[in-house]
């Protein structure tokens, strides 16, 4: 019947029980009339019975609806990921008890899934911390919420200083092909992926230095070439050197002795060159220490007493391997003075968690700076193309970056810029 069709359980229960109560009161009234009760007695009886029925209907309706109310409270707790709140059923058996038991099982299952999600998120953040490539996490509002230690060398300060910064503030640009990071002096490939943490969708950006990958590929190719060349050269030089030394010992002609000595000497020189270059890009066992800048500067001045060398340093410490970093400075300073520099200025400062070093000279500079770090490339007549490659290898194994540029006109000379990470 249409009269019993309702949009809510509340209305349905009220309609059914109300109709039943009206029919029951009508039936009782008929019986009392047949029993010849007086009207005021009939009215009084109907009022009392009606109140009893109304009270019973309210209690019945409350008990039925309370099961749903408790279930709703349970569902609200699930919606806010509070899986420790359970709704107790009004009835120990039957469909209502089964419904509440199913809700409890659902909460326990979702609690297990949440724990797994939390563990995965924790592992993800731990993995981010362990990797040495910059990794940034943005929340669903596109605000920076986390990054690893590699953030600091790339952006010049700890990520905590830029917490909740937008991608635009960090210099990131979103294109149809994804995110890009221009104006950083290096080529970066930005990979993007999404994950869920605390019920929110987060975006993970992973930065890959394409320049480093290209350089690694180039160095690997050069090493393969040198390995093959070195093997063939050594196989040829060894008998030639041995034969020259043997002939020199038996020769009586001074001219022949001199010629054979030159041959032997050049064989040893070529062998030394091959040995030095073949070990150029090997992984070094660095001993990173806190270096006092004042002491370091004094030692460099002592090595270049005949040259105009000045220092401006606002930083007290450098974190590096003393032996290797000193050799890097020696190579760069020798290059500057060999390029006819009359003075060289070294600036050492700090920015965020990085040491910034600028070596500025007033020499003649270079016409082509594109291939400076390419192995075997040299602009010197007597050069071997090893010095700058050695410097870059040392700096990068420290986790740093080195770059060389001609000074802006009308100035002359070059500026070598080095960024070294600081340790605590």
Summarize the structure.
By secondary structure, the chain is an alpha+beta fold. It has nine helices and 13 strands. It has four domains: 2-109, no CATH class; 131-210, PAS domain (Beta-Lactamase); 212-278; 289-421, Histidine kinase-like ATPase, C-terminal domain (Heat Shock Protein 90, 2-Layer Sandwich).
Summed up, the helix count is 9
Rg, please? Answer: 42 Å
According to CATH, the homologous superfamily of the largest domain is Histidine kinase-like ATPase, C-terminal domain
Q: What count of domains describes the coordinates?
A: 4
- The count of β-strands is 13
Strand and helix order: HHHEEHEEEEHHEHEEHEEHEE
Low-confidence stretches: 376-385
Q: Judging from the principal axes of the Cα atoms, what is the shape? A: rod-shaped
Structural class: alpha+beta
- By CATH, the topology of the largest domain is Heat Shock Protein 90
What about the largest sheet? 5 strands, mixed
Beta-strand portion reads 15-25%
């Amino acid at each position: 019947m249409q009269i019993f069709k309702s949009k809510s359980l509340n209305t349905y229960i009220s309609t059914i029980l109300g109709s039943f109560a009206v029919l029951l009161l009508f039936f009782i009234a008929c019986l009392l009339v047949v029993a010849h009760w007086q009207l005021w007695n009939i009215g009084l009886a109907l009022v009392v019975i009606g109140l009893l029925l109304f009270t019973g209907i309210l209690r019945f309706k409350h008990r039925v609806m309370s099961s749903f109310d408790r279930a709703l409270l349970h569902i609200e707790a699930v919606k806010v990921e509070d899986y420790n709140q359970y709704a107790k059923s009004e009835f120990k058996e039957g469909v209502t008890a089964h419904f509440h038991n199913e809700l409890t099982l659902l909460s326990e299952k979702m609690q297990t899934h949440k724990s797994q999600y939390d563990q995965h998120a924790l592992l993800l953040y731990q993995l981010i911390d362990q990797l040495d490539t910059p990794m940034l996490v943005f929340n669903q509002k596109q605000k920076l919420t986390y990054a690893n230690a590699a953030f600091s060398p790339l952006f010049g300060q700890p990520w905590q200083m830029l917490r909740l910064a937008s991608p635009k503030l960090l210099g990131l640009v979103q294109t149809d092909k994804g995110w890009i990071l221009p104006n950083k002096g290096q080529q970066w490939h930005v990979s993007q992926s999404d994950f869920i943490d605390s019920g929110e969708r987060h975006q993970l950006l992973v930065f890959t230095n394409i320049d480093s990958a290209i350089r690694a590929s180039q160095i690997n190719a050069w090493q393969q070439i040198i390995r093959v060349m070195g093997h063939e050269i050594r196989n040829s030089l060894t008998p030639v050197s041995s034969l020259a030394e043997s002939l020199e010992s038996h020769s009586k002609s001074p001219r022949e002795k001199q010629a054979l000595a030159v041959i032997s000497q050049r064989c040893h020189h070529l062998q030394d060159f091959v040995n030095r270059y073949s070990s150029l890009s090997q992984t070094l066992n660095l001993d990173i220490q806190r270096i006092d800048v004042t002491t370091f500067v004094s030692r460099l001045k002592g090595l270049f007493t005949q040259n105009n060398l000045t220092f401006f340093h606002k930083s007290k410490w450098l974190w590096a391997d003393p032996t290797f970093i000193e050799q890097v400075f020696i190579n760069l300073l020798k290059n500057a003075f060999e390029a006819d520099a009359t003075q060289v200025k070294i600036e050492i400062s700090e920015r965020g968690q990085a040491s910034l070093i600028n070596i500025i000279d007033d020499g003649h500079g270079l016409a082509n700076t594109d291939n400076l770090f390419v192995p075997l490339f040299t602009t010197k007549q007597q050069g071997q193309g090893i010095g700058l490659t050695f410097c870059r290898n040392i700096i990068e194994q420290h986790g740093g970056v080195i770059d060389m540029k001609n000074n802006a006109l009308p100035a002359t000379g070059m500026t070598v810029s080095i960024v070294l990470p600081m340790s605590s």
